[in-house]
Write a structure and sequence with these properties.
single chain, alpha/beta, Rossmann fold, five-stranded parallel beta sheet, globular, binds pyridoxal-5'-phosphate
Length: 464
């Protein structure tokens, strides 16, 4: 008997169906759409009993998405690595703030923010997929700080992957820089570019399409639309429900809508829940779309919850695909119109279907600050600005239906500047941040030109 084969289709309908490893290594589908499983696997209710530990939940939740696409034991090794990288036995512990109101702490990983959960898993699975097929991959990514840090910590030591991270010299915080540069791994190259984040993005684009580099081997980038990154976030909704012993309303601080969509995916697999609320900051395209039926692009505004400063949430396309009843032509029409006109009006049937999945609330900077102050005064908790946006929305939810869980996506010490403006003191550093101390740093400073970047990457890839 052959084991199950999990298959993937594009939300835009014009890419061939494929398997998990191909969707993992490609990220984006060739027609510009996002990969989705052809069918939702069903989770056994045992997954959310109180006895279930994170490892068991991770295995049960993710295995059906992989099917037989990876070698035996690959997922178990990957999940072991995720769990080992977290400084808490529950991995994602749930904390009760007051009756019926909970925080789900997602920041106990190697860089003290929730992107670690998915990135660690994707790195381990990518390495397994490549090693099994005898390929090598060079991943190139530009970062303004956080994604680069999570990627370096996740890919350090991978057997079949080289990672090149470009950050703008002196324009990332010292903590973010150290999270990238203190990793002693030969497969990681940190380039500090004389320029800004846009220069880094321009160079990465140029490098990805450079013929001489492409000749040397497969190239890709780290992106937030990879199906595997999404799948890696489903387990903590299951874990939260297991810890509660009850269905919950989840309030998710939202940027690219990956985190929130992972929760919706969990319910598609059978997890009971009382619904999802996306909490956004002043970058409120999602809230306007769900509340007014008009999805329109506005310039991004800088906020204290900087990891949510997103104007066009990429994973929203997955929600539209689901809400149209998996109609790829309708989904393609929505996002092609949006790309062309910067705005699209939803028809009433689609709007109702979207609202059945999730609601959205926008919180401004004053409300974010007030929530940080409230959390400290009321519960003695110091929270990061992203968590504060979620908490402000969570406190408005009706607890008569059942418990309300706000996702806490980063440790406050990662955003110490903003927090100390409100509270008047710096949050105590997370253990992984305190441990950075003055470990030696590895980075190479380069000019913001293609020649300089290409030289550095070529020399790095020649070391094999
Ligand atoms: C990325 C991020 C978010 C938003 O998550 P999405 O999946 O992009 O919606 C929220 N908080 C923090 C700290 C993040 O890094």
């Amino acid at each position: 008997m052959s084991t199950s084969s999990a298959r993937y289709v594009s939300t835009r309908g014009h890419s061939p169906e494929t398997d998990f490893s191909d969707a993992l290594l490609r990220g984006l589908a060739p027609d510009g759409g996002l990969y989705m499983p052809t069918a939702w696997p069903t989770l056994s209710p045992q997954a959310w009993t109180r006895e279930a530990d994170y490892k068991a939940i991770g295995l049960q939740t993710i295995a059906p998405f992989i099917g037989d696409a990876l070698p035996e034991g690959a997922l178990a090794r990957a999940v072991d690595r995720v769990v080992a990288g977290f400084g808490h036995p529950l991995v994602t512990p749930l904390v009760e703030l007051e009756p019926g109101l909970f925080l789900l702490e997602l920041f106990h990983g190697p860089t003290a923010a929730f992107k670690d959960l998915a990135m660690q898993l994707v790195a381990a699975l990518t390495d397994e997929a490549l090693t099994a097929s005898g390929q090598r991959l060079t991943i190139l990514t530009a970062t303004s700080g956080d994604t680069g840090a999570a990627a370096v910590r996740a890919f350090a030591g991978a057997r079949s992957v080289d990672l090149v991270v470009l950050h703008p010299l002196d324009r990332v915080s010292p903590v973010q820089r150290k999270q990238m540069t203190t990793v002693q791994a030969d497969n990681v190259l940190n380039l500090a570019v004389r320029g800004d984040f846009d220069d880094c993005q321009r160079l990465v684009k140029g490098l990805l399409s450079d013929p001489s580099l492409r000749e040397r081997g497969r190239l890709s980038s780290v992106n937030s639309i990879n199906w595997a990154r999404l799948a890696g976030q489903i387990p903590y909704y299951v874990s939260a429900t297991a810890q509660l012993g009850h269905a919950a309303t989840f309030v998710v601080p939202t940027g690219n809508f990956g985190d929130a969509f992972a929760g919706i995916a969990a319910t598609r697999m059978g997890l009971p829940s009382n619904g999802f609320v996306a909490a956004v900051n002043q970058n409120d395209a999602l809230a306007r779309a769900l509340n007014d039926g008009l999805y329109s692009r506005r310039p991004a505004v800088e906020s204290g919850s900087v990891s949510m400063d997103v104007q066009a949430p990429s994973n929203f396309e997955r929600l539209v695909f689901e809400a149209t009843g998996r109609d790829a032509e309708a989904t393609r029409a929505v996002f092609e119109t949006f790309a062309r006109d910067g705005a699209v009006v939803f028809d009433p049937a689609l709007l109702n279907a979207l609202r059945a999945e999730v609601s959205a609330v926008s919180i401004d900077e004053d409300e974010t600050r007030a929530e940080i102050a409230h959390a400290h005064q009321t519960w003695g908790r110091v929270v990061c600005p992203h968590t504060a946006v979620a908490l402000a929305v969570a406190r408005r939810q009706d607890r008569a239906k059942g418990p309300v869980v706000a996702l806490s996506t980063a440790h406050p010490s990662k955003f110490g500047g903003f927090v100390s403006e409100v509270l008047g003191f710096e949050p105590a550093p997370a253990p992984v941040i305190a441990a950075l101390g003055d470990q030696p740093e590895r980075l190479r400073i380069v000019d913001g030109t293609m020649e300089a970047a290409l030289d550095a990457v070529t020399a790095f890839s020649d070391r094999h």
